[in-house]
Specification:
The chain is mainly alpha-helical and 280 residues long. It folds into 2 domains: 115 residues, no CATH class; 131 residues, CBS-domain (Roll), CATH 3.10.580. It is built from 11 helices and 6 strands. The strands form 2 sheets. It has a 3-stranded mixed beta sheet. It is rod-shaped. 27% of the residues are buried.
């Protein structure tokens, strides 16, 4: 027992000096040795004082390896599986689960691996995967700041009215409706800039909003943000018109790329707050 304790302390000191001084050296091997030695110390203690109920010392060694590495690397599941693989059976599965989870909870705020990220979503490798999952979970309705019908213009609107509307907002798409309030098309910012240039050239009473409309993809309220992003990229637009799910000709607002990313960021932070609250 004394020898095992000396090995554990000596390995701690030598590993700390090696890694701390910037020299080449791993952490996995020393963690296994230290954990196994400490487990052996505890197993020898129970074998000496409680031999009737004490499990074999080897069991303490295996569980000690898993527990120490779980705390050092913040990898409880991998450590539990490692014990099962090394022993070839699942008899130590429950003890390993208890030890690894307790060790992980006690040491989860620190790690020996400087490059280890706190969450999978922080990894650039998994960024695209996480973004797709979140955007699929959210709907267009979740990203709408408010149902805004102030952007809607009538198909008979003059260039002067369009110019005034264009200069008073930052939106890039304006839905055009007919006398019944049904969507007939969209005027984008390029067409509005053309309208501003044409104003004052004697066409103000001739060219109206209906002459400038374009066909554009529309979004339905219950459509996923993943689908909305795909439509924006495919159509080359930063803003699309949103229509009612039950009446696809009734405009309820517009969704911009900025609104979509804001909803994504809000959902990511909500998940982060939920996980943090669960761990604390």
């Amino acid at each position: 027992m004394s020898l095992l304790l000396i090995i554990a302390l000596g390995k701690m000191i030598t590993t700390s000096l090696t890694v701390g001084s910037g020299q080449s050296g791993g952490v996995f091997g020393p963690s296994i040795v230290i954990g196994g030695a400490l487990g052996g110390v505890l197993g020898s203690f129970f074998a000496a004082w409680l031999p009737e109920i004490s499990p074999p010392v080897g069991a303490f060694v295996m569980v000690g390896m898993a527990g120490f590495f779980s705390a050092a690397a913040n990898t409880p599941l991998s450590s539990i599986i490692m014990v099962s693989e090394m022993t070839g059976n699942y008899r130590l599965l429950v003890p390993s689960m208890w030890v690894c989870m307790i060790a992980f909870l006690l040491a989860r705020r620190s790690t020996l691996y400087a490059g280890q990220l706190a969450r999978r979503s922080d990894s650039p490798v998994h960024l695209g995967e996480m973004m797709q999952v979140v955007l699929t979970r959210l709907s267009v309705k979740d990203a709408l700041v408010s149902a805004d019908n102030s952007l809607v213009v009538h198909e008979s609107a003059t260039l002067a009215e369009l110019s005034q509307r264009f200069s008073s907002t930052h939106h890039s798409s304006f839905p055009v409706v007919d006398d019944d309030g049904k969507l007939v098309g969209v005027i984008d910012d390029a067409a509005l800039r053309l309208a501003v240039c044409m104003q004052g050239q004697g066409v103000d009473g001739i060219v109206v909003a209906h002459d400038l409309i374009e066909r554009s993809p529309v979004l339905v309220q219950n459509e996923s943000l993943q689908s909305a992003m795909h439509k924006m990229v495919t159509a080359g637009r930063d803003e699309l018109v949103v229509v009612d799910a039950n009446e696809v000709t009734r405009v309820v607002g517009t969704l911009s790329r900025r609104d979509l990313l804001t909803a994504y960021d809000r959902e990511i932070h909500r998940d982060l707050d939920t996980r943090t609250g669960t761990l604390v």
